[in-house]
């Protein structure tokens, strides 16, 4: 009798597992992006951030592209990377476990100190880097979250051109990709995927969504209804914020639509509009990010005139970069270089020789591609060996660039086309010492 009962239990378990596997939707399991073969590019420089913030053309409305939300072979909910089949089962069964948690309910998914280390692929064009820089800068301006170049960090995101637009939810441990493939490098989509990486699910996954929207189940593609599953309150929570039709994390109205002319999501509130992820941060998006990461306010205060704008300033200053690279350091590392309230450069001194080493394993490759000139603001302090810009090189105070954009302008031929300004203000980059 005992043996018979054991056999029955085993058979029941096997049937249950088979049934579960049979019912699993056809979503991508694991990370299909081949990050190991990707060539890493240089981190986004301060000059790129500044230029991106000044270019409002980067913040443009993009019509919602639902092509990824009509395929039977796609990411969960269209853009969420699932690590394993077990995690998918946990999500579908709405179990309160690690696999389907958000950073709101599971603090381990938050990034410590609101800092997200990143690599960025060299495959992005200058124009694409500008869009990514603008999206990152929006986080820097509106929240206390900062994206910092990955050096020796164990946990980090790798931004690359992979399969479609996708990300994991929060900090999962180790390297995790944020894919910005074909059609994904636009302002709203980059904000959206990075917000997944900070720890947020889609807005319409909220436990209370049925109070605010109606799902048109009859128009949802067959086999894709699971993408509209709700979470429990304990899994996603809501930070005490109201439902947000305008969230950058909200599906568009035609997501997973069988008939692309008929919405799958209707707002219940009179006059409400659902834009999808293309409009940029809503006020509640910014508030949610700041609440989650315990930022001091809803917007990040503007830095005072005496602030370092790069996390590595104090390290670079200790290695003599205030003297050897004053054009960048005296502008972006005023505090560490003791340049508060003055713009007068010190007399040249011979700094004590220090080890001339690169801080990134890809420095030599970047140098060969000309990044020492085109992205000098990052490369010279981070890759001094490969750029031949070591600390013991004495730079005359008369031979400096007085603008952080000089190296970039020089590579674009401004030394010849605009000599009146460039030969005076960009002597070093124009070789006019």
Per DSSP E runs of 2 or more residues, the count of β-strands stands at: 8
User: What is the general shape?
Assistant: elongated
Structural class: alpha/beta
Taking the alpha carbons of the first and last residues, their distance comes to: 96 Å
Largest sheet: 6 strands, mixed
Poorly predicted parts: 11-22, 297-305, 342-353, 393-397
The tally of helices reads 16
Work out the strand percent.
5-15%
Helix content: 25-40%
Give, in order, the helices and strands: HEHHEHEEEEHEHEHHHHHHHHHH
Radius of gyration, whole Å: 25 Å
Mean pLDDT: 78
List the helices and strands and how they pair.
Blueprint: H1 2-23, E1 40-41, H2 46-54, H3 85-92, E2 115-121, H4 126-142, E3 146-149, E4 156-160, E5 165-166, E6 175-180, H5 187-198, E7 213-215, H6 233-236, E8 265-267, H7 283-292, H8 313-318, H9 321-324, H10 326-332, H11 363-368, H12 371-374, H13 376-382, H14 406-411, H15 414-417, H16 419-425
Parallel strand pairs: 2-3, 2-4, 4-6
Antiparallel strand pairs: 1-2, 5-6, 7-8
Helix pairs in contact: 2-4, 4-5
Architecture overview:
There is one protein chain. By secondary structure, this protein is an alpha/beta fold. The protein contains 16 helices and 8 strands. The chain is elongated, with a radius of gyration of 25 Å. The protein has helices at residues 2-23, 46-54, 85-92, 126-142, 187-198, 233-236, 283-292, 313-318, 321-324, 326-332, 363-368, 371-374, 376-382, 406-411, 414-417, 419-425, and strands spanning 40-41, 115-121, 146-149, 156-160, 165-166, 175-180, 213-215, 265-267. The protein starts with a helix and ends in an 8-residue tail after the last helix. The strands form 2 sheets. Strands 1, 2, 3, 4, 5 and 6 form a 6-stranded mixed beta sheet that branches. Strands 7-8 form a two-stranded antiparallel ribbon. Helix content is 31%, strand content 7%.
């Amino acid at each position: 009798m005992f043996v018979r009962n054991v056999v029955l239990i085993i058979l029941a378990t096997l049937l249950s597992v088979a049934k579960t596997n049979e019912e699993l939707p056809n979503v991508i399991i694991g990370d299909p992006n081949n990050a190991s073969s990707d060539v890493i590019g240089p981190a986004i420089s301060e000059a790129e951030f500044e230029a991106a913030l000044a270019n409002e053309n980067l913040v443009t409305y993009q019509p919602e592209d639902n092509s990824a939300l009509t395929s039977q072979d796609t990411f969960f909910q269209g853009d969420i990377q699932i690590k394993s089949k077990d995690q998918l089962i946990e999500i579908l069964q709405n179990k309160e476990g690690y696999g389907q948690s958000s950073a709101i309910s599971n603090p381990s998914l938050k990034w410590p100190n609101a800092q997200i280390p990143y690599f960025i692929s060299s495959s992005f064009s200058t124009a694409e880097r500008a869009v990514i820089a603008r999206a990152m800068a929006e986080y820097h301006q509106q929240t206390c979250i900062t994206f910092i170049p990955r050096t020796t960090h164990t946990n980090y995101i790798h931004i690359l051109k992979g399969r479609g637009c996708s990300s994991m939810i929060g900090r999962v441990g180790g390297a995790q990709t944020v894919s910005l493939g074909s059609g994904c490098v636009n302002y709203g989509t980059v904000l959206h995927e990075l917000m997944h990486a900070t720890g947020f699910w889609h807005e319409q996954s909220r436990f209370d969504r049925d109070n605010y929207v109606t799902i048109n189940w009859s128009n949802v593609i067959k086999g894709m209804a699971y993408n509209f599953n709700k979470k429990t309150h304990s899994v996603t929570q809501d930070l005490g914020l109201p439902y947000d039709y305008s969230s950058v994390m909200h599906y568009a109205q035609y997501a997973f639509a069988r008939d692309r002319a008929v919405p799958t999501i209707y707002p219940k509130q009179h006059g409400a509009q659902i834009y999808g992820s293309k409009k940029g941060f809503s006020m509640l998006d910014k508030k949610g990010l700041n609440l989650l990461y315990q930022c001091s306010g809803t917007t990040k205060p503007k830095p005072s005139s005496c602030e370092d704008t790069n996390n590595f300033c104090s390290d670079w200053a200790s290695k003599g970069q205030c003297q050897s690279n004053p054009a960048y350091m005296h502008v972006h590392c005023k505090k560490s270089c003791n340049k508060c309230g003055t713009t007068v450069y010190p007399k040249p001194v011979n700094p004590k020789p220090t080890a001339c080493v690169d801080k990134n394993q890809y420095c030599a490759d970047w140098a060969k591609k000309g990044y020492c000139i085109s992205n000098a603001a990052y490369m010279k302090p981070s890759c001094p060996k490969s750029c031949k810009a070591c600390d013991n090189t004495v730079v005359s105070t008369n031979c400096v660039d007085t603008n952080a954009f000089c190296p970039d302008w020089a590579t674009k031929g401004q030394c010849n086309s605009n000599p009146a300004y460039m030969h005076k203000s960009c002597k070093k980059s124009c070789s006019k010492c």
